[in-house]
Amino acid sequence: MGDERRARGRPARINREQIVAAARRAAGPQLTMQAVADELGVSRKALHYYVGNRQGLLTLVVLDRFDHELQRVRLPDDGDWRAVLRAYAFAFRDGIVQVGEGVDQMPFSGVGAVAVLALAERVLAAMLSAGFAPDDARRGVTAVANIAQSAAHDTLRSSVRDFHQAQTRAALERSADTDYPALRRVLAAAPSPDDGQFAFELDLAIAGLERLLATTP
């Protein structure tokens, strides 16, 4: 009788670790709630019950990425704010790329809403400990988040563009070389993605923050 009530009430019990693991297995440029639910073997409704929405899924993905990035760097005992900020930026960019378009930068929601406060605390605490004024720390983190979000959206747009270009090239290969000369000329001049742009902008932001910190009384 208890099992019947459970079946009609709360969805199947899943937790943060299981959701993150499923998101890793279902990873792709447009990670969907349905794909994660399928990996978990539960209904989409059950996943919504624990995550809330795709924004909540993004929260968990970003937190997982952030933990992974921090494991890749050797942080000094005092927590180098540059390394922490870089880890946050890469985690945020990669998280949006994994979940895909249609998510906002803030607010985070769902099962990871409380956990993301710990993430913000870690990043801001590192900057405040380094000597940044509270307003400068907030603006610095916001600037880096904006750069990461912009880079993620550029990556997503490039993925869609590259897919369409590949399909077009395949169609042209089945045509005579003299057909569609304008289209062939445009495709030949198509710019290649600049993988270094995100790192360049992040370096500029951190260099600017270093200079700001040097002038902070």
From TrEMBL:
State any GO BP term from the record. Answer: negative regulation of DNA-templated transcription
Picking any one GO molecular function of the record gives: DNA-binding transcription factor activity
Q: Where is the Tetracycline repressor TetR C-terminal domain?
A: 76-211
Cite the entry's keywords alphabetically.
DNA-binding, Transcription, Transcription regulation
Recorded hits in Pfam families, A to Z, give:
TetR_C_1 (PF02909)
**Is the keyword Calcium in the record?**
no
Give the protein's recorded name. TetR family transcriptional regulator
Organism classification? Bacteria, Bacillati, Actinomycetota, Actinomycetes, Mycobacteriales
